[in-house]
Amino acid sequence: xxxxxRIAFIGGGNMAAALGAGLAGKLCPAExxxxxxxxxxxxxxxxxxGSTAAASADESLRACxxxxxxxxxxxxxxxxxxxxxWMAPDTLVISIAAxxxxxxxxxxxxxxxxxxxxxxxxxxxxxxGMGAAGLYAADSVPQAQRELAAAILAAVGTVTWVEQEExxxxxxxxxxxxxxxxxLLIEAxxxxxxxxxxxxxxxxxLAIQTVxxxxxxxxxxxxxxAVLRQRVTSPGGTTAAAxxxxxxxxxxxxxxxxxxxAARRAEELSQGA
Length: 273
Ligand SMILES: NC(=O)c1ccc[n+]([C@@H]2O[C@H](COP(=O)([O-])OP(=O)(O)OC[C@H]3O[C@@H](n4cnc5c(N)ncnc54)[C@H](OP(=O)(O)O)[C@@H]3O)[C@@H](O)[C@H]2O)c1
Description:
Elements: E1 7-10, H1 14-23, E2 33-36, H2 40-48, E3 52-54, E4 66-69, H3 76-83, E5 92-95, H4 102-108, E6 116-121, E7 131-137, H5 143-154, E8 157-161, H6 167-176, H7 178-195, H8 200-220, H9 225-231, H10 238-248, H11 251-270
Parallel strand pairs: 1-2, 1-4, 2-3, 4-5, 5-6, 7-8
Antiparallel strand pairs: 6-7
Helix pairs in contact: 6-11, 7-8
Bound molecules: NADP nicotinamide-adenine-dinucleotide phosphate.
Residues 11-16, 36-39, 42, 70-73, 75, 79, 96-98, 122-124 line the site of NADP nicotinamide-adenine-dinucleotide phosphate.
């Protein structure tokens, strides 16, 4: 628990709710979480858990030493500018918005005293406490606040720091968009199972548990994923027959090409395209 942590979520929707659920009681009590959200239902949900909430930025923000912006990118400029009057020189500002570079926040906060900015790329498994977030901090952010930002994101999964902000485009292409790649694989496994004669519900149960089990094995084993793959691949066996098709069809190259497309799109979006 951080006794002096008071965190404001500016935008209290899905991602904020996941973070709040992970934080509350672990890093700080729910009473030390403040929500700024235009949506009355969202505010009521947070208030029911003991947090305070307001429809717009106001004086309450002054008491919060961490501000985490979690509104959609389209409304971010307006929202950030509305909060600016209450910002202190040592406010830790965290953005989880996809595709908005820190330079944009610096423009919107011009006139506020030297905000300490951290940009984060989370992913949807954060909603079940299994997220993978990439973090980048501006040089001006002191070590203690970097650790605090990491602790906040670690409440819903793992945290990986990158040294250059542009690397968040690669994080977006890997873990940000990655859950969709895995869902696609699961869909393909289910369809393949059905084509081979399994009932749809059985194919789905087997596919999901296989992905979950393989990920858990990869996460807990001291071996690399490549070694684990080789271990389940006997020469001339069933797995070898399948992997040969993946290789022939160029699966690794397809994945690399898809990720390059995602990274390019992330870069375009961060440039306002
Ligand atoms: N969801 C993900 O998996 C994911 C992954 C990576 C990054 N992110 C980033 O996380 C951020 C939040 O995403 P989300 O999925 O949590 O969105 P969300 O559920 O729509 O939450 C945003 C909340 O902000 C409220 N809001 C809109 N305009 C506002 C304003 N002017 N002032 C205060 N509150 C306002 C919305 O209310 P209304 O609903 O009434 O508009 C909503 O309750 C986005 O920037 C997104 O890029 C999300």
